[in-house]
Amino acid sequence: QVQLVESGGGLVQAGGSLRLSCVDSGSIFSLNAMGWYRQAPGKQRELVATITSGGSTNYADSVKGRVTISRDNAKRTVYLRMNSLKPEDTAVYYCNAKSTWAPVIRDYWGQGTQVTVSS
């Protein structure tokens, strides 16, 4: 069973940086596609970045050039490094694991970590 635990959120000034971490306690982390999504108050959850089991990455246009997603399979951890943060980056950030290797793809979610960017 996949269990995702995020950490690293907090309050930061505009222009600052944060690194979010997500630890997957499941048994097949290296095969899962991993991603970060965010949800701001009153808005739908949106994709921030994804990384496949092979290391291919994808970013939302709104964060390209400011955000880097990476994974450490030995530590069963996916990271989201965010630079040049803006107030509009304020949201709850959720870690996602997708069992793309399985006959039936399932999504797993963490509990979320709050990121607040002050102007």
Write a concise keyword list for the protein shown above.
119 residues, 11 strands, mainly beta, seven-stranded mixed β-sheet, globular, 0% helix
Could you characterize the architecture of this molecule?
It is a single chain. The chain has 119 residues and is mainly β. It is 0% helix and 50% strand. The strands form two sheets. Strands 2, 4, 5, 6, 9, 10 and 11 form a seven-stranded mixed β-sheet that branches. It has a four-stranded antiparallel β-sheet with strand order 1-3-8-7, with no helix packed on it. Strand 5 (46-51) and strand 6 (57-59) form a beta hairpin.
Layout of helices and strands, plus pairs?
Layout lengths: L3 E4 L2 E4 L4 E7 L8 E7 L6 E6 L5 E3 L7 E6 L4 E6 L8 E8 L8 E3 L3 E6 L1
Parallel strand pairs: 2-11
Antiparallel strand pairs: 1-3, 3-8, 4-5, 4-9, 5-6, 7-8, 9-10, 9-11
Beta strands, count: 11
**Topology pattern, helix = H, strand = E:** EEEEEEEEEEE
Rounded mean pLDDT score: 95
Question: What is the first-to-last residue Cα distance?
Answer: 40 Å
Radius of gyration: 14 Å
Short description:
The chain has 119 residues and is an all-beta fold. 0% of the residues lie in helices and 50% in strands.
